[in-house]
Amino acid sequence: MIARLLIRIVALAALAYLVLPLVVITGTSLTQTSYLAFPPDGLTLKWFGVLLDDPSYVSAFVTSTLLALAATAVSVVLAVPASLALARYAFAGRALVSSLFLSPLVLPYVVLGAALLQFGSAIGMARSFEALLVGHVVIVMPFVLRSVLPLLTPEQRALEEASMDLGANPVTTFFLVVLPQIRGGIVSGGLLAFISSWINVELSIFNTTATLNTIPVKMFNYVQYTIDPTIAAVSAITIVAAALVIILLDLLMGLDMLSERHRS
Amino acid sequence: MAASRTALALLLFAPLAFFAAFFLAPMAVVAISSVTTDGDTLTFAHYARILLDEYHWDVLWVTFRIALMTTLICMLVGFPLAWYLVRIVRWRTWRRICVILVIVPLFTSNIVRSFGWMVLLGRTGLVNQALMTLGLTERPIRFLGTETGILIGLVYILVPFVVLAVGNALATIDNSYEEASADLGVGPARTFWFVTLPLCLPGAVSGAIIVFALAVSAYVTPALLSGGQITVFSMLIFQQYSSVFDFHYGAALSITLLVLTLVLVGIAGRIGDAGRRAA
Amino acid sequence: MQPLLSLEAVSKHFAGHQALRDVELGVSAGEFVALLGPSGCGKTTLLRCIAGFLIPESGRIRIEGEDITAAPPYRRPLNTVFQSYALFPHMSVADNVAYGPRRAGASRREAQGRAREALALVGLGEMGARLPRALSGGQQQRVALARAIVNRPKLLLLDEPLSALDLKLRRRMQIELKHIQEKLGIAFIFVTHDQEEAMAMADRIVVMHAGRIEQVGAPADIYRAPATRFVAEFVGEPNLIPATPAGPGRARLAFAGLELAVPEGTSCAMVRPEDVVLVEGAAAPDLATATGVVEDVVAIGSVTTVFVRCGDLVLKVARLGMSGADLEPGATVAVGLRPAGLHFIAG
């Protein structure tokens, strides 16, 4: 019983520790003072207004969003056929191909960023939107792959065979039978991909410039010199966006992953 | 058979070509430049420099110390939280909220989360205010620019990984094992020690190694919370590429970090596999 | 007449093991053929080769003379009922059944009309709007059947379609399936490992073992005159009496000192348990008899099996109903069988 109580206390403290910074940032973004104050000194949305009036923030926001959207779209287009190949065919080097596609999950982003800068300089692509895009596709594709692959089960395979048996060619089968079955995986993997691209600093920082900048990199560079409520306002936006996406994911597929599966 | 070979080639062509062009080729460029000079002669001087320079050993040591402490604290904080969520919480809605609270930080940029701690840990930040109000300290404690500050930030960023890994392992343990243990007359504490803990150990260990690998290669958090006072390994890489412009030396540092990380992840994978086979 | 389906020396390997070896088979229009064998015998592999999900390495598969060996599944004039049913979970029952006609170019209205007909045929006329998961296992099985026959293929492949149903429902579906097959005149190739199911439904049974066809024949022939020891043991319960050569064309059996004229290479004689009798009093003149000791009695209601040991041989004696259930192990009895009714097996 004492152990249980102790665990409860540590757990609740840990939860508080996880929430505290997010609450503090959101709170300070509402302060009326020109320095960071928590609890906020009076309530205002003026720091969000400052953001909207600053074209460099607006353009960074646009870059980040376009980049995340494009990276997600390309990674879906690449990951779906890749997962079909990995799930449906036994071929020499299958394990190797699968670990190649999944390896960016564990790769130090700093290393990949440096590599893309160096490679980009060699082929004249460095510090461009394309350089950012290809890097982001590489790091977010595993998320889509990982959420689509488990859906391509043997039962799903039987559905494809049934479709072909009934006279549908592979393309028709893909759109009428495969796609409806893996749509959930594409959506949740795509959301993960979008978020991972949107929040990335380590990879982007090598290929951004003063005019081509993403929100996280801009924040990173800014925070090293100045700290004021505009940064808190940007942060608050990303926190609220992240929370919304997760609640959406929860409603979509249920994030109740920690409930016990073998309890009677 | 020929038809299925063609289909396989069609499916794999685009993803493989993309990864070859924008992942393998860049990595190869780095690997090659790490063992060459500007004149394109083969050399291991860059690696020798890493090995021989005492400063680098200091940086490596600091990086490892921070990563090790981060992993340890993550386990100490994450294990009870996972246990609480899986075994103690009975109200589904509350557990759902808790899981969301654990995941939201994961979906928020490192930069935002580190920035939060810059605010909290400052001289007049909430943490120092609280400590002084409680009378635990008379003068504000310096956190920023110390290893403690970096630790607080890194643990914050990485603890969700442990909670998810351990929580998943705990949630998949069949409770008939524990019932069998109780049925054989073993008390709860000993059941935990001899049954539950060994069963979720593989999940916990591979979670810990992932945390360690991520902590070793972390960049944003140490960069912000060190206030320029402490250097970790990934900062060295960034310096070479952004201000020193020695791509060869930077490449050697990159490859070193990469190999280190891959070895750690490989070990984690082995342990995870062994755990799955045992389960 | 040209057969509907003909298999010519069809062979298929899987990673080091031979799943099919030189399979030869012809199936006529409107025929009900059961592929019978234990799991791993190659029957499902053969079905998948016919359906087009697998391509054999050698041999030819023809339908009405046309070579379809390498044709993709969607270009073959046949349909399949899958073991798992494989109903599309995201489509209503009616849309599942209309899927085939739609792909064959029917308009939406026409396809729906044909789906309604097919569903009515399997007794599910009212279920069209539901999703497959809202149906019971037996109903899902009927939908799978309706979906497979809606295009009126000449040949229907069924891969253990009743294996997921409970025993009672399975018996009922066997009869119903047979009726539907006769009504539509479609040839059925029905894979099963249940010999009773095969005997109950098929016009012809193909017994498979280790990738080969062991025997093809009418159910009664397979039962009475199995070609090999494997068939004798797999289809029904046999009594196998060892035979040792005793001069040219003759053998001595390990029962009652019988010496008989046998075909060349005979290794044993088979008699079914229901053809062995317990003799009380004087035996009929055409019976060979021996005395033995009762070892065990198993009564399951409709049939009672008495195990009688005669020397090294244990004979199974089947009796209708509960007669003989009161025999005690250890009792001495006389058993008799008709030498003229013995079937000889080589090898």
UniProtKB/TrEMBL annotation, chain A:
Keywords in alphabetical order: Cell inner membrane, Cell membrane, Membrane, Transmembrane, Transmembrane helix, Transport
SUPFAM superfamilies named among the record's database cross-references: MetI-like
Membrane topology: Multi-pass membrane protein
Entry-linked InterPro entries: MetI-like, MetI-like_sf
GO CC annotation: plasma membrane
Domain spans labelled ABC transmembrane type-1: 61-252
Domain of life of the native organism: Bacteria
Stretches that traverse the bilayer: 57-87, 99-119, 131-152, 173-199, 231-255
Gene Ontology biological-process entries: transmembrane transport
Keyword hit for Membrane: yes
Location of this chain's protein in the cell: Cell inner membrane
The protein's name: ABC transporter permease
Originating organism: Ancylobacter mangrovi
From TrEMBL, chain B:
Lineage: Bacteria, Pseudomonadati, Pseudomonadota, Alphaproteobacteria, Hyphomicrobiales
SUPFAM superfamilies, alphabetized: MetI-like
Keywords assigned: Cell membrane, Membrane, Transmembrane, Transmembrane helix, Transport
Organism superkingdom: Bacteria
Topology relative to the membrane: Multi-pass membrane protein
InterPro entries the record matches: MetI-like, MetI-like_sf
BP GO terms, sorted: transmembrane transport
Nucleotidyltransferase keyword on record: no
Cell compartments where the protein resides: Cell membrane
Stretches that traverse the bilayer: 61-86, 93-111, 149-171, 191-216, 247-268
Protein name: ABC transporter permease
Pfam family, one: BPD_transp_1
Family: Belongs to the binding-protein-dependent transport system permease family. CysTW subfamily.
CDD domains found in the cross-reference section: TM_PBP2
Domain ABC transmembrane type-1 span(s) in chain numbering: 60-268
GO cellular component, one term: plasma membrane
Native species: Ancylobacter mangrovi
From TrEMBL, chain C:
A Pfam short name: ABC_tran
Keywords assigned by UniProt, alphabetized: ATP-binding, Nucleotide-binding, Transport
Keyword Nucleotide-binding: yes
Signal peptide extent: none
GO molecular-function terms, A-Z: ATP binding; ATP hydrolysis activity; transmembrane transporter activity
ABC transporter domain boundaries: 5-235
A biological process term (GO) from this entry: putrescine transport
InterPro entries: AAA+_ATPase, ABC_SmlMolc_Importer, ABC_transporter-like_ATP-bd, ABC_transporter-like_CS, Mo/tungstate-bd_C_term_dom, P-loop_NTPase, Transp-assoc_OB_typ2
GO terms under cellular component: ATP-binding cassette (ABC) transporter complex
UniProt family annotation: Belongs to the ABC transporter superfamily.
Classification via PANTHER family: SPERMIDINE/PUTRESCINE IMPORT ATP-BINDING PROTEIN POTA, SPERMIDINE_PUTRESCINE IMPORT ATP-BINDING PROTEIN POTA
Name of the protein in its database record: ABC transporter ATP-binding protein
Organism the protein comes from: Ancylobacter mangrovi
Lineage: Bacteria, Pseudomonadati, Pseudomonadota, Alphaproteobacteria, Hyphomicrobiales
